[in-house]
Amino acid sequence: MVFLSDCRAATAGRLAVAGAAVYAAVQMPTEHPQPDIAQIMTTLTSHPLRRVLNDEAHARPPIAIPSPARLSTLTLLFDDDDSAQRAAFVDLFRRLGLPQPDPRSAHHTGIAGDLTVRWALHTEFVRYTFVLSGDCVDPFERTALDRLPKDWLASLPGELMVAIHAVLLPASQEAPASEISQRWFGGHDLIGAEIGDNNGVAYTDLRLHPDARLSEGFGRYVVIDRNMGPSQSGRMLQRLFEIETYRLLALLALPEAKRQAPELSRLGTQLRSVTQRMAEQSDTDALLLDELTDLAAQGEQLIAESQYRFAAARAYYKLVERRITELRESRLSGLQPFREFMERRLVPAMETCDTAAKRQERLMARLQRSTALLRTRVEVMHEAQNRALLASMNKRAALQLRLQETVEGLSVGVLTYYAIGLLSYLFKAGKALGAPINAELATGLSVPVVALAVWWGMRRLKRTVLH
């Protein structure tokens, strides 16, 4: 027992010494102190778009709108240059006595007393939203636009596409749909639903109602705030405004699709005529190719005129569907909800645009196939012509070879004649010197020898040249 106690004491002592050493080591200053966090941050290089992309999550936030309130929204289309739009909203803020906004920003909100002004710049349109808090007996006659300078409103650049007045009412002013229709919508059939998980109700008839500020009138919305609160009310109203904006922007492609329908039919008929003449071979290939090229140019022109509009329409339609989903609507008895109305009215228009785009693609595909077929036929014809030309060249080469062989035979005769003539003079000279030579006999006997030598020499020279 004494031995065990001594061992425990020794072990405890060693652990105590080791713990003290570890504690001392931890407390001792290190040889390389940790750098300051600020120094580390200054050495990191941020991407030039880091803040822009991060702030995109907070772009165009909705306005918190407590009930009751009156709202007006204007959406204007503009060309590629947005400088006039930026100058207009900067001028409005100056006239209302608000702090000057950043002219480079894409959205801005300013508050002047009970008036809230919201400006948002998009790719091809700009939207103004004006919110006037407080109740009013006739909210569609005395609107938020009354608080704006009349000359500024009249000088807004761009083309007005959407103009809507809306009123946000508390739950205490909720009334049956028939009463709301008679009071503010001229007794027209309403489109409406409970929104925001039954925390609110929205009504509209999607018609243009008379207004002194605009000859074509304004659209109207009535929204009941049952239990939404300012933040949800602002989100729901913004979605309703965006649904109407994107709906009309999507429908911009419909007139273009209708305009191109007869043009596409005409091009299709002309293409059928060309392909029939190709099959019958009633016209020259050059003429047919010219007609196909002209048809292709016209088809490309139609695509260039409508490609952006059709693509934008499809994108806007998807946004409409998304915003309707975000409404989280529930059907009201006797009323057509927003999704049902859009599926009944907007979907056929989008299908018409899609049909026009597909007809363009099919037409261009047919043109490409017809052009490829005609080019193939032209190439085959050219190959046949080339074969005929090569055959003619071969025939000419054979004739030239035969002529050359004839010339070679004549050359042997000529060279033999001249060589025999020289030998004749040589034999005669030898006879004159007294040599026992019969010049005529020697000359005659040398003819075949010289001819054979010349012929062999010509063959040797020809073989040397060819090889």
From TrEMBL:
The lineage of its organism: Bacteria, Pseudomonadati, Pseudomonadota, Betaproteobacteria, Neisseriales. InterPro entries: DUF3422. Keywords: Membrane, Transmembrane, Transmembrane helix. The chain crosses the membrane at residues 439-458. It comes from the Bacteria. Pfam families: DUF3422. This is Membrane-anchored protein.
